[in-house]
Amino acid sequence: MGARAPPGRPDQLWRRRRTIRRLLVIIAAALAVALIAAGCGGDDDDDEGGGGGGAARTFSTVEEGMLTVGSDIPFPSFEFREGGELTGFDVELVEEMANRLGLRIKWVDTSFDTIFTQLAAGRYDMVASATTITEERKRQVDFTEPYYAAQQAVAVNPRRTPELESVEDLDAGDTVAVQKGTTGEVWVRENLPGSVRIRSFPEAPDTYTALEAGNVTAVIFDEPPAVTEAEKRPALEVVQRLDTGERYGFAVDPRNRELLQALDDALAEIKRDGTYQRIYDRFEDLPPGGNILEA
Q1: What is the CA radius of gyration of the chain?
Q2: What whole-number distance in Å separates Cα of residue 4 and Cα of residue 266?
Q3: Which of 19, 107, 174, 229 is the most buried (most CB within 10 A)?
């Protein structure tokens, strides 16, 4: 007969096998946890910068979570201060757009003459300053879809020039005031005879102050602020409206097409759901014909 196995050896072998099985189960569980964690890590990477919750944000801004907006203030009824608070048609539209994109707003008051250069240089994300869309400006910046139908207006001081009722009444030697860099300035230079002098001012209110003082013969400027200024200054009167077929748009940094698309989407929704009309109706000083939904 062969030799006998040492006593107790089968039990020891069984214990070893049970221990190995336990170790294998533990290792398999650890691997499963690691794979799940890796999958979650991948999801976090995809959502980075998306603003949390909802769909991932696909655009960037000058400051994270902030929409930096350049504007030439004041320009009633689009941007002006009332009781220390900034308000206006532009202001409320931009605030609504920013809110729908989950952004806060920082307004930067700047000269209109350099506002597009600074936008193209990346100082702002966008410009909201009652800005007419023109081909020349589109060579430097991008624009959203139009949000306002604009025209120019002629303001005079009837106490000094009671006979002046239109641009056709301007004579050689008369001086027309405009704001530098505006479409009003462009229109004057392209349409008035060379015998009429043109005086450009850096800020819009200065043109009306000069008209009050008799230092210029007329002011040609966007209709909404022209009407507002004439109402505030009893000596002045708007005598003519010039249908130039202009459309206002919000200018956007040309290197940020993703932000432009997001703003356009928000603006389209604002027009569609009735918010645009409600904001427009709040500013009774806006002249008839400016509502882009009707135009």
Answers
A1: 33
A2: 88
A3: 229
Helix (H, G, I), strand (E, B) or coil at 113: helix
From CA 62, how far away is CA 41, in angstroms rounded? Answer: 28
The CATH number of domain 66-147+249-282 is 3.40.190.10: yes
Residue 70: exposure state from Cβ atoms within 10 A (0-12, 13-18, ≥19) = buried
Sheet containing 66-71: give its strands across: 104-109, 66-71, 126-127, 251-252, 142-143
Least confident of 12-26, 38-52, 66-80, 154-168: 38-52
Interval 246-277: pLDDT, tens: 999 999 999 999 999 999 999 999 999 999 99
* CA neighbor of 106 nearest in space, from 126, 77, 122: 126
Q: Calculate the alpha carbon distances from 260 to 27, 75, 97, 121, 240 in Å.
A: 51, 24, 12, 16, 35
Evaluate whether 94 touches 250 at the Cβ level (below 8 Å).
Answer: yes
Q: Please compute the mean of the pLDDT values over residues 61-68 and round it to a whole number.
A: 96
Q: Residues near 202 by Cβ (< 8 Å), separated by ≥ 6?
A: 111, 112, 113, 179, 180
Residue of 167, 163, 171, 174 whose CA lies nearest to 214: 174
Please state whether the predicted TM-score (pTM) of the whole model is above 0.85. Answer: no
Sign of CA dihedral 186, 222, 295, 82: positive
Q: Mean of the per-residue pLDDT values for the chain?
A: 84
